[in-house]
Amino acid sequence: LDPLMQEALPVIRKLESGGFEAVFVGGCVRDSLMGRPLADIDIATSALPEQVAALFPRTLPTGLRHGTVTVRSGGRTCEVTTYRVESGYHDHRRPSEVEFVDDLTTDLMRRDFTINAIAMRADGTVVDPFGGIADLKRRVIRCVGDPEERFCEDALRMLRAIRFASVFGFRLAFSVWKALVRCRELLRHIAMERIRAELEKIMAGPDPGRGLALLTASGLAAYTKEPLPEALRAAKRPDPGSPLARCAGGLSQVAGLSERLAALFMMAGASPEDAASALKTLRFPKAETERIVSVVRLHAMTGGGRPLGEPVPVPENPVHSASRTQWIDAVLACGAEAADGWLSIAGACRLVPSDVQAQRRTWLKELPAASVRELAVGGSDLIRRLGLTAGPAVGRLLDKLLREVAYGRLPNEREALLEQAETWNKNR
Ligand code: ATP
Ligand code: MG
């Protein structure tokens, strides 16, 4: 048993000593059989939720109605769920009825994929009625039961299929692929937040390019409840060997989820506005959205904006030949953090030749100040010295000073900056 499962063993033992059946199920069994690190521990039991609660001193009624109780054991928690069947999927997402049952196989039958429908007993023996272990070995995602029926019950499973295929490097069984294409319109029943969560897992995985290709090739990407920008929906799997394919492969070399998302937008040729609207549609938090959009904007300001790697001859490719002024202007407008993000994407995806990268890195490093926060004066200094009132004019003055400093026309020193501001103010 995996060490994390070992830690949860007392929970299973306790349930067994109460006369109930209890087993590990779901992701932890699958991941331990694959030798992957476990995310969380799920236990299924024949005990009813109130019987579970009665056995353990400290429990949380996580989803009592659905049969889930959170139990603390040692320093950790695990979710204990009563064997159950689900029915009444009227809205293609959540079951309206849950019925507790006393049989493990019946519980495993409601689970989405064979690799997620394996149970493991305390002694390490497995219960695998749907051939999940064989599918793990063959590296294939197969539904428990008829894929069309299962996707029709809960359309989120379509995204989960693609997520597991892309994160594990598995293929989709042909029956699953056919059902994906047939049922894709049902995706509109799924909340954008849940789509976001799956997308994030795909993007964080080892081969996001493949997950995205499956999303677009199946047509799923075009059937979200709120439409994603055309640029994203149409981001087709590029011809292998093409420069775009090289960039898509590079996506997995990009560190950090935000940077990967920025790279995706750049690759799709999305404008900063497209990127902002896609992230809003997908309910990304505002701060993360701004971080990502700044990188896309910096890319657009330095010659990007068409799909990356589109075969433009090197000397004419505006991304390659952006001037120092273009680069510095973009850094001032988008921030040094965006520039760092862009440079790391450029390195991973080989956006521009390495000498161009090195040149821009140097320009960035040599910048005496990249934002007004780094200036030797602040807004209140200007207000005091020039007798201004707070307002947008102060911000404009600071921006103007920043440009002078960034381009080396003025030292970043308090007196020099205040004098310059005074001169501008007098000549106004
Ligand atoms: P991970 O935690 O790595 O995302 P997981 O397989 O553990 O993967 P969870 O969402 O934690 O996924 O769900 C635990 C188990 O519950 C799954 O392994 C599966 O057996 C079942 N399950 C989860 N979501 C669904 C669903 N939409 N339809 C059917 N079964 C599901
Ligand atoms: Mg899990």
TrEMBL record:
The keyword Transit peptide does not apply. Residues 169-223 form the tRNA nucleotidyltransferase/poly(A) polymerase RNA and SrmB- binding domain. Keywords: Magnesium, Metal-binding, Nucleotide-binding, Nucleotidyltransferase, RNA-binding, Transferase, tRNA processing. Its cofactor is Mg(2+). InterPro entries: Bact_CCA-adding_enz_type3_sf, CCA-adding_enz_C, NT_sf, PolA_pol_head_dom, PolyA_RNA-bd. Residues 24-142 form the Poly A polymerase head domain. The keyword Magnesium applies. It holds the Pfam family PolyA_pol. It comes from the Bacteria. Residues 355-420 form the CCA-adding enzyme C-terminal domain. Transmembrane segments: none annotated. Belongs to the tRNA nucleotidyltransferase/poly(A) polymerase family. This is CCA tRNA nucleotidyltransferase.
